[in-house]
Amino acid sequence: MLPDKILDRYRVTKGDGFKLADFDPDDSGNVDFEKKDGQELLEVGVKRLSRLQQRLYAEGRWAVLMVLQGIDTAGKDGIIQHVLTGVNPQGVSVHSFKQPSHLELAHDYLWRAYRALPQRGHIGIFNRSYYEDVLVVRVHPELLQDQNLPPELITKDIWKERYQDINEFERHLARNGTLPIKFFLNISKKEQRERLLARLEDPNKIWKFSAADVAERRLWDKYQSVYEDMIRNTATEHSPWYVVPCNKKWFARLVVADVLAEHIKALDPSFPKMSSEDAADIDAAHKELLDEEK
Ligand code: AMP
Ligand code: MG
Hints:
Number of domains: 1
Number of strands: 6
CATH topology: Rossmann fold
Distance between the termini: 50 Å
Strand content: 5-15%
Shape: globular
Structural class: alpha/beta
Largest sheet: 6 strands, mixed
Helix content: 40-55%
Order of helices and strands: HEHEHEHHEHHHEHHHEHH
CATH superfamily: P-loop containing nucleotide triphosphate hydrolases
Bound molecules: adenosine monophosphate, magnesium ion
């Protein structure tokens, strides 16, 4: 488990003055440990998360919505795999947001997100999310033209309006028992180059490569600026962003596991209490089973 203060430094709850450049993707919290210690800490972190998830699941009131955003190779898939390993799969749902289908494009952009929300007691993971509609769609305005909107609704204010919609959507979720926690996985341009090269050169990784990854990389600066604007406009108390340094994968996983655990702990979910009737039933069942021995 990482000291709380380390998590605090990645949490963004208000956008004023937010600058992505203030967050170093190479950071590993100035904590005095190496990758190997980090892996051991992650095991501890995942066990703790798993115990907390059991309570969340048993209580069945709150849901946690974990939103993962980040440029290609930032480590979204690895985080899902490593952080949620050991957590009861019955209480977890993962949804990956790809290019929208015809059916999805026949609805507003929040529709597909709404349908994929986790049920009470579950942790829902959005691998990419409705935020793509203020990211990739903003970087490639032609995608906006494919969204079948009435043309008069596409104005210069559209991104500001989407931020407002998203803030209100997330406030609605938080007010109704679905806690949004958003992670921006922050890697450097240099690290992305290494990871793309690794994909190209490793036969076990090549399936993940898409020619679009290199084309999108050419738009690196544009992406950084829309990520920054997104966080500036959608970081709130009820739905914070965590800007996670991801150049060191093991550190990023540790941060995400701890952030999730801390938020679930703060919800303080409890196992359902027994009524006196339940207690009587349990006594009777216990007695019946013991009596079988006789
Ligand atoms: P991957 O995460 O590598 O499987 O790629 C999924 C692709 O779908 C990414 O290139 C995303 O930018 C793209 N995508 C996700 N949501 C949208 C959207 N709303 N509009 C257009 N493209 C999207
Ligand atoms: Mg990809």
